[in-house]
Amino acid sequence: MNIERALATDGWMEEAELEYLASVASKSRVIAELGSWKGRSAVAMAQNTRGAVFCIDRWGGNALTGGEYGAAGAIFAEFQTNTQGIPNIVPVTLDTVSAARLLGSVGLRFDMVFIDACHEYEAVKRDIETWRELLTPQGILCGHDFFGNYPGVSQAVRELLTPFRLINNIWTTEGAL
Q: Which of 86, 115, 124, 138 is least buried, going by the fewest C-beta atoms within 10 A?
């Protein structure tokens, strides 16, 4: 697994979490990442798959990250710099539900969906419900920030995904049965 470039990219993902994402990505061909920020996890997945990583984000930041809004903003520029030269990263500048509608309408199905966008309960619930419909039969649904200051994440996961398992702060359906 190759996570050196991901480790050098700004972000909150721990090394063990990047290793997990890289491992799952190595077995996946079509990946959706909901919430890409500066690209740390996207790089880990893209450098370990022979497929494509669709990075879905509005790149607008939030109260914690700050930043300018939209694709012309500073966060998206940093994402582009951090992912430069990685040809299998496909940025999609849409909200997660619009992206699901668009990508689903052209017949895309995903081997892996990684949810790390809005951490509010209703948003996480909506992302789980929307994106699990786009998974391949053996597809893996996973996400970040189960613990910490985001009770909406753990609440939505507990309500909608039984069973699931935890790898550090990542929740996943992989190997949960």
A: 138
User: Is the CB of residue 74 less than 8 Å from the CB of residue 38?
Assistant: no
Which domain does 153 fall in, by range?
4-172
Residue 177 lies in a domain: no
**Number of domains forming the structure of the chain:** 1
Separation of first and last alpha carbons in the chain:
25
Residues of the chain with pLDDT under 50: 63, 65-66, 69
163 preceded by cis ω (within 30°)? Answer: yes
Considering only CA atoms, which of 92, 80, 89, 110 is closest in space to residue 47? 89
Measuring CA to CA, which residue among 90, 170, 97 is closest to residue 134?
97
> What distance lies between CA 32 and its chain's CA centroid?
6
User: pTM of this prediction?
Assistant: 0.93
Nearest to 2 by CA among 53, 54, 49: 49
Angle at 50 between CA 24 and CA 36, to 5 degrees: 60
Q: Which of 162, 155, 160, 157 is nearest to 176 (CA)?
A: 162
Q: Is residue 132 part of a domain?
A: yes
